[in-house]
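Consider the tokenized backbone below.
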């Protein structure tokens, strides 16, 4: 059996590391931007919250600016009819959809589709509950939960959560690349010179 000190084996291992290591590094760096797509980070009303006064708009906050291309926000009431009143507008990294007067208590569903600044479509749905008094809308909306930047509504955009890739995928790619380097090195080390 040849040892690593043998000149031919040493050259082959060095060649495998010279070729394989940059491939593994580029696989990690190439996988990282996949998780960098814009994503929904907050909403008002907050997903799953209960409001006691009817909101006049739905505000969706994204991690980066979105475009007006293909912008759609549809809010449906408990009866399944649209309560959206007018076209949504882009306000920096927020999208604002005006609502008509909400008169029914019950669950409201927000469905959205936007295109991020990198051209990646983002879509999803979430709901909130309205417990409205029969007197109708009065004063600003009050909520049982407060919106925060850390509250991200669940969505249905290409996989788990809002983002389509997570940081774990970069480590998987790196691990596979490193394993490939080790396998190539072992095969080259075991081959006898011809």
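A designed sequence for it:
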């Amino acid at each position: 059996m040849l040892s690593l000190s043998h000149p031919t084996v040493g050259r082959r291992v060095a060649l495998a590391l010279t070729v394989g290591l940059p491939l593994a590094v580029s696989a990690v760096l190439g996988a990282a931007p996949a998780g960098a797509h814009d994503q929904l980070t907050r909403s008002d009303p907050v997903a799953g919250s209960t409001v006691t006064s009817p909101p006049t708009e739905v505000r969706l906050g994204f991690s980066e600016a979105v475009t007006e291309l293909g912008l759609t926000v549809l809010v449906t009431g408990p009866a399944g009819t649209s309560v959206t009143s007018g076209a949504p507008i882009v306000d920096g990294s927020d999208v604002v959809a005006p609502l008509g007067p909400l008169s029914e208590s019950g669950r409201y569903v927000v469905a959205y589709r936007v295109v991020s600044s990198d051209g990646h479509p983002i879509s999803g749905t979430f709901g909130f509950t309205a417990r409205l008094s029969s007197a109708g809308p009065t004063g600003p909306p009050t909520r049982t939960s407060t919106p925060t930047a850390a509250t991200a509504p669940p969505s249905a955009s290409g996989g788990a959560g809002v983002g389509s890739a997570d940081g774990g995928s970069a480590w998987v790619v790196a691990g596979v690349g490193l394993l490939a380097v080790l396998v190539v090195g072992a095969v080259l080390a075991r081959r006898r010179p011809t």
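The CA atoms of residues 103 and 187 lie 72 Å apart.
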